[in-house]
Amino acid sequence: MQVSQRLPELYFKNLTKKKKQIMEKKENNRKLRVCVATCNRADYSKLAPIMFGIKMEPEFFELDVVVLGSHLIDDYGNTYRMIEQDDFDINTRLHTIVRGEDEAAMVESVGLALVKLPDVLNRLKPDIMIVHGDRFDALALATSAALMNIRILHIEGGEVSGTIDDSIRHAITKLAHYHVCCTRSAEQHLISMCEDHDRILLAGCPSYDKLLSAKNKDYMSIIRMWLGLLEYSDKIMNVESSDDVKSKDYIVALQHPVTTDIKHSIKMFELTLDALISFNKRTLVLFPNIDAGSKEMVRVMRKKGIEHHPNFRAVKHVPFDQFIQLVAHAGCMIGNSSCGVREVGAFGTPVINLGTRQIGRETGENVLHVRDADTQDKILQALHLQFGKQYPCSKIYGDGNAVPRILKFLKSIDLQEPLQKKFCFPPVKDNISQDIDHILETLSALAVDLGGTNLRVAIVSMKGEIVKKYTQFNPKTYEERINLILQMCVEAAAEAVKLNCRILGVGISTGGRVNPREGIVLRSTKLIQEWNSVDLRTPLSDTLHLPVWVDNDGNCAALAERKFGQGKGLENFVTLITGTGIGGGIIHQHELIHGSSFCAAELGHIVVSLDGPDCSCGSHGCIEAYASGMALQREAKKLHDEDQLLVEGMSVPKDEAVGALHLIQAAKLGNAKAQSILRTAGTALGLGVVNILHTMNPSLVILSGVLASHYIHTVKDVIRQQALSSVQDVDVVVSDLVEPALLGAASMVLDYTTRRIY
Hints:
By secondary structure, this protein is α/β, with parallel strands linked by helices.
């Protein structure tokens, strides 16, 4: 009887246990419910790529969209409609803006949002809320979610700018559980703010995922639509034919109030409009955001007659896809919007940043700052300086792969972890913030070495490791060569993503005289044909959306030694390259010397004999005429033609050209004439080094290239015999770098990107 009574108890106990296990399994495998809340046109441009990514993976995520703020106000374009046009279901619309556009209205708007949001969050019950940026609406969202124990993922934390936005951004950071930042500086700021580095993802800006694939689309129809026809007084006036609206011949203006100094920001806006009227170019003016002071700025626009001026088009909103095209092809963008210092750099469009609203932002070299924009003349002068320029494309804020990283990050979130935030005191060590796989992406450069025979492209890491190298024969014509460079760089950049390498830029090493400021090969060596007055920076930057540096191969060898080789840490040293030609580079007070006409360090053309052999430069008696690979090949052919080259144990196949290596082999096997030629070449090089020691007085001379080891002893002998006693102790060494040209090209990128801190 007792056994029969216990059976039902055991049955129900086991059944309850199984149900519990099934429920736990379902809980572990359930979709992540993500709430994305968007407040205005600007934050939607950053959130939309993430929303599309979430929507594309319904097996992992459920998406709830909450719309509030200026999205729902007619005066600001009713921009919620673009969310509907993107085919997103809006779960909730919250009218949270208290009109007035002053400081009190901003506070009241935050309060109204705090009153309305709890009901929405109770109904939706999201696992995580994604909050963007630094707006007062976002602060209300983060506060509500934090107090209701909902995890927060904050986009674009850690950045620095002006106005009250800075304080709001950092306040949201302290409320957020997870952080997606756009730059390494922002990442370091978050770590310094004691955020847990395991919960920080350096992903880049999500908007760049769309930006970097947008520029080649049909843009003229968009330009004509927004700037070709000007509308006023219920009529459409065709000021100029639509065909007269040209790329790079118009301005985009976007200026917001500065909430910490409203009076000054309104005055600055008035001066900006006066300057734009005087500059007399077609201009698209976007209405300011809803911050305190915006109403007064709109009054200034109307007082100046901007909405009826024949050169201006004033609009409340431009869809982001179209706005991208407009700024990408503008002659200039002016104002104080974060878009100018962030997104526009992806296209190299010139930007004039006015006032203090973006103070502290990382910017590319395309941005000209006018902090004290207190006169019309200053702004007008900036317009003359910037309008119509084209700068290298900058990827400071992203590389186009942010959304996949963010989705992977979301999938890694463990909802079983304690909700309570942990702060890391004191700040953690540098460079230990991790990506989603807890493995740092390798900061790398694309290095290009353009030689007389081969064209080589390599992915080079920050430590000087060549991760992968590609080699092709260097074509003979300009068109074939530039197309091959572009093709190889595109392939290498794509491979870099698979290799977990983040490419910061492209460095190019090439023979000849180079203007590194403009990225132009002024005059090439005779070994590379059709390569004079060639702009290398523009096509590569436009294709790869990366900054590009170009320099002479000798200079690159010196840079390689400074960063990775025996010149590391030295204030003054000289590098001599011994290869097909003779080149070099000079480091003086830690800096590379280019000279007034970019002709410094043409060390191969130091004359060491007044009646020496002819040189390729047109002179005679140069070091290169004695000691270069071409010079040794010339002497080897002479000996071979006179049947005085080959010795016992040596042969040259009929189909093989006689070269410098055959001369060196003959000398090693005891050929006296070959030994004499090599000794003369080494002596010429040694005399050149003596001249360098007497002129520059470096602390080290580094011989680089394939012939260096064959010359080193002779060079040292000449120094002992010919140099002043005060420089005879200067060390002369053979470089231990295997690929100095590639490493030097990479060092230009790794030592200096386009980042500048304002």
